[in-house]
Amino acid sequence: METEHAEHFPPRQQNFFPLSQVSGADRIPLMSETLHDRIRKRLKDLNLTPGAASRKADLSKEMLRKLLANPDAMPSGKSLTALAGALEVTEQWLLSGGEIVPAVKSDVRAASPTPPMRHEMPNDVPVRGTAAGSHLRGAFQMTADPVDYARRPPTLTNVVNLYSLYVEGTSMEPQYGPGDLIFIHPDKPARIGDAVVVQCQIDPEGHIEATIGILSRRSAEKVTIRKHNPPAEIDLPRETVISIHKVLTNNEIYGV
After folding, report:
1. Which residue, 128, 160, 188, 198, is the most exposed by fewest CB within 10 angstroms?
2. In 3-state terms, what secondary structure has residue 120?
3. pTM attached to this predicted model
4. Is 194 helix (H, G, I), strand (E, B) or coil?
């Protein structure tokens, strides 16, 4: 009976080069990737600016920008935890990376199985200005850039274009009082009887004012809203109306 003999091969010659002699094209990308690189990747994946990510993490607005500007800087443990949450990755991935890159998340966030604590709610709802309660010249003072950010209620996790406003004046009491924060859903159709924010162009130069009221009637000629204090109805010429946005009720905000 023949005996099988294992074949033996001479050891393969291996060449080692100092890392400084290896060209950039020959480097293994993951070996040279840093925490700063991974942060930049997640900012791009999530379409966030450093300032927006810092605010989302409840850190100072300039924290992340300063960190990225200094390749030798490292965040504190508390800041690392906050950044990981804002960038939707683990702290371990930020520190060391890995073969599996976290999936890019869309604007629709996954619902949590348990209600988050207040400090866990994202502070990412832009406050666009204030709402004045005048009957005649209604005007919200609305800005293109947010004047502040409000915490996002858990039931509004999936609302991409959500914004908020502070109420001033007393024309909508007792429903809304001075200082109340209201949440506006611009993509949810407003029905008769809903509280709404109506934006209007008030002059040929394009200046815009907005007012809050109860949507009473609308036609091709005008939009009519109702005020509470004192009771009154205001007609807004339809050709001046730019948008009618629904103000969310407490039931819609808290999921009652």
Report:
1. 160
2. helix
3. 0.51
4. coil
CA distance 81 to 90: 8
**Which pairs with CB-CB distance under 8 Å and at least 24 residues apart come from 27-32?**
30/97, 30/99
Q: Which residue has the tokens 């990510």?
A: 53
Alpha-carbon distance of 246 to 255, in angstroms, equals 16
CA atoms within 13 A on the CB side of 175: 21
Which tens digit of pLDDT belongs to each residue from 199-211? 888 777 777 777 8
Does the pLDDT value for residue 101 go beyond 80? no
Structure-token pair, residue 31: 């070996």
Measure Cα distances from 179 to 55, 99, 127, 141 in Å.
23, 49, 13, 14
Asked if residues 140 and 165 have their Cβ atoms less than 8 Å apart, the reply is: yes
